[in-house]
């Protein structure tokens, strides 16, 4: 996908202005960017027959510093609004700067909060941070979601300290996730395999 200079400028501003630029740069590892590009390409394919609207609203749970939101705004997807929710309050100002153009237009909002308690009613709900919450937290999160939203979930088999719930295979991730699956796939990356399922909570 193409990243334009206007958005690139805001990305650099977000990194430059953040309290810990090296930490913010973690969101730009090749595997992180490729996983998001893969998500966008496949969401585009699934969303068209599923959602009968010209413009879609998106909530990203565990949205981190807002890179996925910015990439979604720059994609072929026709997006009205994106809300990026993260429990870490340091993410909010970085995500706002990362998406400054859309924030000025009233199309982007960053929210500090626990995904398990924040209510969502957007057309698409994305959670690429499934490995960062326990199974109990995930089950609680899923129980609070609407039945008519398209859900996009990612996890991986990368066993590092911050991952409290990895999946050992795509089948394992499907068992953990317990949703009605419309699309599934895995992406081989140098250090780990990323799993993705797209479906609903019907
Ligand atoms: C480090 S990111 C990486 C996730 C994934 N690899 C990606 O690319 O999106 C995981 C994020 O999930 C957030 N997070 C963890 N538990 C959360 C919760 N209960 N509610 C909202 N955000 C949460 C963390 O604060 C962090 O910003």
Description:
This protein is of the alpha/beta class and 202 residues long. The chain has one domain: Rossmann fold (3-Layer(aba) Sandwich). It is built from 8 helices and 7 strands, in the order αααβαβααββαβαββ. The chain has helices at 5-17, 21-24, 30-50, 67-73, 91-98, 100-104, 135-143, 170-177, and strands spanning 56-61, 79-86, 108-112, 124-127, 150-156, 180-188, 193-200. Helix 1 (5-17) packs antiparallel against helix 5 (91-98) and helix 3 packs across helix 4. The N and C termini lie far apart (32 Å). The model has no long low-confidence stretch (mean pLDDT 96). Bound molecules: S-adenosylmethionine.
Entry summary:
This protein has 8 helices and 7 strands; from the N terminus they run H-H-H-E-H-E-H-H-E-E-H-E-H-E-E. By secondary structure, the chain is α/β, with parallel strands linked by helices.
Element string (H = helix, E = strand): HHHEHEHHEEHEHEE
Query: What can be said about the biggest beta sheet?
Result: 7 strands, mixed
Tally the helices: what do you get? 8
Q: How do the strands line up in the largest sheet?
A: 3-2-1-4-5-7-6
Tell me what the CATH architecture is: 3-Layer(aba) Sandwich
Oligomer status? single chain
Assign the CATH superfamily: Vaccinia Virus protein VP39
Number of domains: 1
Q: Find the CATH topology.
A: Rossmann fold
User: Which runs of at least 5 residues are low in confidence (pLDDT < 50)?
Assistant: none
Instruction: Please bin the fraction of helical residues.
Output: 25-40%
Q: Structural class of the secondary structure composition?
A: alpha/beta
- Write down the Rg: 16 Å
Mean pLDDT: 96
What ligands can be seen in this structure? S-adenosylmethionine
CATH class: Alpha Beta
Q: How much of the sequence is in beta strands?
A: 15-25%
